[in-house]
From TrEMBL, chains A, B:
Keywords: Hydrolase, Signal. Residues 89-311 form the AB hydrolase-1 domain. It comes from Rugamonas rubra. PROSITE patterns: PROKAR_LIPOPROTEIN. Pfam families: Abhydrolase_6. This is Alpha/beta hydrolase family protein. Residues 1-24 form the signal peptide.
């Protein structure tokens, strides 16, 4: 599609005018179509370690001796829009995913990367250590082709395979599901929340003060990153699934579900207290059962939502500022485990924008 | 950095004016700084296969039975600039690399992704099947942490470890080398030029007519992609390292080097002939030895350059349009195995732009 100069110039002028106003309340997206104005973009590695083998390197007969290996870093791709808002957003994906989670949706619409660029935020997308383009792991692993598509369909609450939930915010074209399945990418080393949050902390040191978005398994490393680095100024967590950390003596009981048990994790009081200093909001989607059920895919989330409520209570009991939004409670229905790429992802982005405005994070 | 509206609007106007002219000769980059005007961006998977396990899927006791696995696709990230030129550029990385190869340079400057966006081309960056964000492989593999940094330093002709070549176009800050080493990412399945070129062909069907840039190991799959899909309208190959294909009866002898032997590969006459229909240009950098040497890192490239010359001769003998540019021969010195991210990468991009203009690919 080509847009005539006169049209896109007036769009550009409109963007500029909007950008000069700085309201404390959410004033709607700056421009929802037309060209993105990108001041700078690029990628780099952050954090990680270096393994060094003893001995002397023989240039002409290379072996392990004297050689090094760089691994356990993360990879970040950033885009800074023209007239950027001061606080960037760093987005961390969940299990079996990469930064791909925040790019185009499976049905080809704009994901949170581009939606929040349009709203004026610098956006940093992460491939966590041992995933995607940050594949070099200091710990070995074997990969096989374990078939998990149907498990993912259930567990990510698209429906109960092979049926979609009636109200699901997921496009039903077969090619959309194909794209969704192909967004999956494996761990290239053991999952390690400590390694991930170390690299994330190195990233935050590079980026400076920022808001952190996390998804699913990224929730746990997200809390740890905020503990390790004061540059995390707020967290927006989409469907955190594990890594709920509590101070000593306050761990809730282990919870059984049809998908296995969910255990809280212990952290020092000092570290826990650090999470009370920043605003935190947690979003969960739809089709959670109210009562225990044998439906594995759904029951898995019943207990995670329950644990998240206890976690928010604990944060606030200690003086913190956490909020949990179960989207159906505010009239938003049908969201899967990926609210940021569901059919109503602009509505979800609007919710997030309101939170950022309210907390003056924009 | 903030730019005042008046300044960036005049930049935008200047860009528009340049974009309306469509010269057949290279007229210099459109704008080398200031904001990028991106009409659309996003990502998707292309190609790949699906494994299906027999049996019935039990939603509440998931096992392999009845489940599927999607793998062997590629991942592509695209950006379409405002007032785009008609032929996009698709960029395919080499061994141990991902689309990262074309993004920021290791010292943080703009790589070919952004340089060619600035020159008005839609740009598609690929993570090939079984690499990076396209990690799902239908064939199992074991990953370890084999230390290869020093081998890469030599083999990618940065120097002879630990010394840089005197004239090398590679920034010598330690953090640059650290970033370079961290651009390495492993195969998550066996390397397979057939699998890669199948997925690339699926991508080209989606993209339409395009120019293909390849790097190093990507050279071989690049030729195969052009054989499989007539949408490849030209190839710009940076330091192709293997996969030189010849028609029956014309295979040159296997060549020994200090880094092992290099073998030509056979392809049918019909397939070979398809490569004679498109313009092809191949670039090699500096610090190649003229004569056989025991220096492994350099000798490795002596034979690849020699084989590439024979390959270009074969293409042209059959009526094709291939050219090999050994950069020192045209007065450009010090390039490593990564000319697209070397210190002089804008000069290299200018060379490529001249080729694209000459062949009316812009």
């Amino acid at each position: 599609m080509k847009i005539k100069p006169s049209l896109w110039l007036s769009t550009a002028i409109a963007v500029t005018i909007l950008a000069t106003g700085c309201a404390a309340t959410f004033d709607g997206p700056r421009h929802t179509s037309g060209p993105l104005l990108i001041q700078a973009q690029g990628s780099f590695a952050a954090g990680g370690t270096e393994l060094r083998n003893s001995g002397n390197y023989d240039n002409n007969k290379p072996a392990a001796a004297g050689q090094s290996f760089h691994g356990d870093h993360l990879y970040a791709f950033y885009q800074i829009p023209q007239n950027a808002r001061p606080l960037p957003i760093v987005m961390l994906h969940g299990a079996f995913q990469s930064a791909r989670s925040w790019e185009s949706t499976s049905d080809g619409r704009e994901g949170f990367q581009t939606l929040f660029l349009r709203r004026g935020f610098p956006v940093y997308l992460v491939d966590q250590p041992r995933r995607g383009r940050a594949g070099n792991s200091t710990v070995a692993v074997s990969l096989d082709s374990t078939p998990n598509d149907q498990l993912f369909f259930d567990q990510f609450r698209i429906g109960k395979w092979p049926n979609y939930f009636d109200n699901v915010q997921f496009d039903r074209k077969p090619e959309t599901l194909d794209q969704f399945f192909r967004s999956v990418t494996p761990n290239t080393g053991p999952y390690d929340a400590g390694v991930i949050s170390d690299a994330m902390s190195a990233l935050l040191t590079k980026v400076g003060p920022a808001t952190l978005f996390t998804h699913s398994q990224g929730g746990g490393p997200g809390w740890l990153t905020a503990i390790k680095n004061a540059n995390v100024k707020a967290i927006v967590a989409f469907e955190p699934g594990s890594g709920f950390i509590f101070p000593p003596g306050e761990l809730p009981p282990v919870v059984p579900s049809a998908a296995g048990t969910l255990s809280p994790e212990a952290v020092s009081s000092t570290d826990f207290q650090k999470l009370t200093r920043i605003p935190i909001i947690i979003y969960y989607g739809d089709n959670f059962p109210d009562q225990p059920t044998t439906e594995r895919g759904q029951d898995n989330w019943r207990v995670r939502l329950a644990m998240a409520r206890l976690w928010v209570d604990a944060i606030n009991r200690h003086g913190g500022h956490a909020r949990l939004v179960h989207l159906p409670d505010i009239g938003i229905h049908g969201n899967t485990h990926f609210p940021m790429s569901d059919l109503n992802n602009v509505e979800i982005a609007d919710q997030v924008s309101r939170f950022l405005a309210e907390k003056r994070l924009d």
